[in-house]
Design a protein that fits this description.
heterodimer, A: 417 residues, D-Maltodextrin-Binding Protein, domain 2, 5-stranded mixed β-sheet, 4-stranded mixed β-sheet, B: 309 residues, mainly alpha
Chain lengths: 417, 309
């Protein structure tokens, strides 16, 4: 009785708002918890929330922004008790615990809509157990950001092969600089190097097999990856004492010109520009080929929105996901003055920023091997943490390799049973 | 008539009135007992229970019996590193006690502005441990850090900086921790020194005691209560050395500065953690180590109590 009354009331309301679009039927409260806490993303998220709020007069959008790092551990509590409607998270294996525990809502029906055809390229990263559990809103390329002015001074070009890479690096070292800056205090930066060297040496499929625990860490192919890496380490290509720096603390080496390049995600560009590197000094190249027999695979981590399975306002939540993935919104939020990253909707236009354009071209035309999400998103959590610690140790003491690999193999046998 | 008048008046004294003396202390204790039970005792047993399971904190618990302990004590290298680091902390942290005593003796004099000097020495204990950790991690920075430059003058070069070298990192953190802990011990001894009996000092002086003999045979025995408290807080501080590690090295380089409490946090609550069962097993081991100390402290307090009677 009550529900029919409610329904008729809602119908009544809907008919009174004659000219309003269908979506305006949304009412109640939409609760969003977002981890977009850095200044630029925060402004984007707040803009999205207020815009969505203004679009639907009966709907109140409640936005809570949580520190990005803190969210990685808070999401569990947030989803299990008094769940919000929409949350931020990451694609691929990183979703597994919440999908398995039934905390993310299956939104395959949303993906079946025509609107979502434009997001087809990211569907794989959002699929687990044959269903889709969220939508992406942005992604960004990884690659080598380098000091163009120093390369020009030394007469070097962008290396395309490993041999060129090594000879470039030798020239840089001879000029009294380091080839690469890196800060491994928080470990994950070393994961990026492993992703690239391993996928360039053994290919994307092997890399994913390793991530899925199907290959032994003591496998000779894994050793080959580390041998290639050790070439750079033994040359002294990386800045000293990198285990004491965070990635931000390692930036000044690049801006001061003590190191010439940084293997990083595109989010670092803003910081490099703040550090005084304009486009005449800063440029980008794709990580060079090591094994010509395998295709380029690229790290391009995807950030996502999900609906909690305990959501109170599912209709509004779904409408919000349609809203953030629409071509128009994608164009705006990924623009150079907003997130400065790549839009997930193929109908959205890409910002004309130099690095975003290069990244977009690289990922659209030159990543035939596949798209990796990143070491700590492709590998299960425990393997990622043990693994990255081993990678950091390898970068400081390459001679400990046998011991490190034995340890990782030990962990693999335990974790993937 | 007198009989009937008396009986109801006796009955009017309710149950509480009759048992007032026995019940009132328990009433006052009740809130404390309740909170202690719910927030301390119960979680301890919950940890025991969880440590027999494999559990990600979200789904169903799977009973695994003693498997967590077998893995932990059967050659988990992270555990071994953490355990030995805990031992290092326990021993080296105790240095805070003699250092605190030394500073207290040094400051225990009447000079103009002594209160100011005392508060300056106490300062590191007042500021947050996180701040102390940060300041020390800058102090230790390779190349640019003050410590590295001083070492450079002496001609010692620590590869990777103090906190970047697995052989020195733990000691570097302990040194940072000693700074506030020494201040704490100093305050304990300063109050202790106020209570030293001047007549005994006078008498000892007449007997010709001075210098370290005076300190050892006259002053120190009177400082025994202060020493005991300093010992207790230092041991507990050493076992809780979580903040410094989290701020200064985050357990690194490659896990060489982990202690049991940090390892427990990493396994159960950190970004890549949520292995609640294993974390709980570490917590249980840590609990028993602490229990050893706590039992000793309680025993010695009980013994002192008995002697005093």
């Amino acid at each position: 009785m009550r529900s029919t009354l409610k329904a008729s009331l809602a119908a009544c309301l809907a008919t009174t708002m004659l000219s309003a679009p269908a979506a305006a039927e949304l009412s109640g409260t939409l609760r969003i918890i977002s981890d977009m806490s850095n200044p630029a993303p925060r402004a984007v998220m707040e803009g999205l929330a207020s815009e969505f709020d203004a679009m639907h007069s009966d709907l109140t959008v409640e936005l809570e922004i949580v520190d990005r790092e803190a969210w990685k551990t808070q999401i569990r509590n947030a989803l299990s008790a008094n769940a919000p409607d929409v949350v931020n998270w990451y694609a691929a294996t990183r979703m597994t615990p919440y999908v398995d525990a039934g905390l993310f809502m299956d939104i395959s029906d949303l993906w079946a809509e025509d609107h979502f055809d434009a997001l087809a390229s990211t569907k794989g990263a959002m699929t687990l157990n044959g269903a889709q559990w969220g939508v992406p809103y942005t992604y960004y390329q990884w690659g080598v950001y380098y000091r163009k002015d120093i390369f020009e001074e030394l007469g070097l070009g962008e290396p395309a092969t490993w041999a060129e890479e090594i000879s470039n690096c030798q020239a840089i070292l001879d000029s009294g600089r380091k080839c690469y800056t890196i800060g491994t205090k928080y470990l994950w930066t070393a994961g990026g190097w492993f992703d690239y060297i391993n996928s360039r040496t053994n290919g994307y499929d092997f890399h994913i097999q390793l991530a899925n625990g199907e290959v032994e860490w003591t496998d000779p192919r894994v050793r080959l990856t580390f041998e290639n890496w050790a070439q750079l380490i033994n040359m002294g290509a990386f800045v000293d004492d990198h285990q004491t720096y965070s990635w931000q603390e390692a930036l000044p080496f690049m801006t001061d010109g003590q190191a010439t390049a940084y293997l990083m995600g595109n989010f670092a560009v803003a910081a490099m520009r703040d550090g005084g590197l304009d486009d005449s000094k800063l440029d980008f190249y794709q990580f060079p080929v090591i094994n010509p027999g395998v295709d380029y695979a690229e790290d391009a981590p995807t950030d996502t929105f999900h609906i909690a399975s305990g959501a109170q306002n599912v209709e509004a939540a779904k409408e919000f996901l349609r809203f953030v993935t629409s071509a128009d919104v994608q164009t705006r939020i990924n623009g150079g003055d907003a997130l400065g990253q790549l839009p997930v909707n193929s109908e959205a236009s890409v910002s004309d920023d130099k690095f975003i354009q290069q990244g977009f071209n690289m990922l659209s035309n030159n990543a035939g091997g596949g798209i990796m999400q990143f070491f700590d998103r492709d590998f299960p959590a425990e393997m990622a943490s043990v693994g990255m610690e081993g990678l950091q140790e390898f970068m400081v003491f390459p001679d400990n390799l046998d011991d490190i690999l034995a340890r990782l193999e030990d962990a693999r046998q335990r974790i993937y049973q | 008539m007198t009989m009937t008048a008396d009986a109801p008046s006796h009955q009017q004294r309710g149950w509480y009135k009759r048992n007032e003396i026995a019940v009132t202390p328990w009433l006052f204790l009740l809130p404390g007992i309740l909170f202690f039970a719910v927030y301390v005792i119960l979680p301890i047993f919950q940890s025991f229970w969880i440590s027999f399971h494999q559990w990600d904190g979200l789904g169903e618990k799977t009973w695994v019996g003693l498997a967590n302990y077998e893995r932990l004590l059967g050659g988990d290298r992270k555990f071994e590193v953490s355990f030995w680091n805990n031992i290092r902390w326990l021993f080296l942290y105790l240095l805070a006690i003699p250092m605190g005593l030394f500073i207290a003796l040094f400051l225990n004099q009447t000079v103009r502005g002594i209160r100011f000097y005392k508060s300056m020495f106490f300062f590191p204990f007042v500021i947050s441990q996180v701040v102390v950790g940060l300041v020390f991690s800058w102090f230790y920075l390779p190349n640019t850090g003050l410590f590295d430059q001083i070492m450079g003058l002496v001609g010692i070069d620590i590869r990777g900086g103090v906190l970047g070298n697995p052989n020195t990192a733990t000691y570097g953190i302990i040194a940072a921790g000693l700074w506030p802990q020494t201040a704490y011990c100093m305050i304990l001894y300063l109050t202790g020194l106020n209570a030293v009996d001047p007549e005994q000092v006078e008498a000892a002086r007449l007997d010709g005691a001075k210098g370290h003999k005076m300190l050892w045979y006259v002053i120190l025995p009177q400082l025994k209560p202060a020493t005991f408290i300093a010992f207790v807080v230092t041991i507990i501080g050493a076992l809780r050395s979580f903040d410094f590690i989290a701020v200064m090295t985050n357990g690194g380089p490659f896990g060489s500065t982990r202690v049991l409490s940090f390892y427990m946090f990493e396994e159960s609550l950190s970004e890549f953690g949520f292995r609640m069962g294993y974390g709980a097993a570490i917590a249980v081991v840590l609990f028993f180590i602490m229990l050893g100390f706590i039992a000793y402290f309680l025993y010695s307090m009980w013994r002192d109590d008995k002697e005093a009677r």
